[in-house]
Amino acid sequence: MSLTGGNRNDVTQLMPLIKAIPPVRGRVGRPRKRPDCLYADRGYDHDKYRRLVWRTGIKPIIARRGTPHGSGLGIHRWVVERTIALLHWFRRLRIRWEIRDDIHEAFMTLAAAIICWRRLVR
């Protein structure tokens, strides 16, 4: 997975992200190479991307534009939004100031470790 600029459209990184997914761990036997389905919001609602995701063997569950909320995707999206909110506890991560992406990634890893440690201490 690559780090892109802040003003880039997320959908441009959809396929590189899917290709970077490591094998799914779980039951004994042949490991699955990819997840069963992909949840995405309305920003990914385009038939081109649905077809690309289907070709990888993943079922796309993408909210349609112009439809009311109630697709059920908010249940899964809340986990991602909560994680981003936890990372925003760290002022340095709210806005990316580092030019080098390896330094920014190191700060993200450090923040994730601190968040986990705080939860385990409780």
Automatic annotation (TrEMBL):
It comes from the Bacteria. InterPro entries: Transposase_11. Residues 2-115 form the Transposase IS4-like domain. GO terms for biological process: DNA transposition. GO terms for molecular function: DNA binding; transposase activity. PANTHER family: BLR1914 PROTEIN, PHP DOMAIN PROTEIN. This is Transposase. The lineage of its organism: Bacteria, Bacillati, Actinomycetota, Actinomycetes, Streptosporangiales.
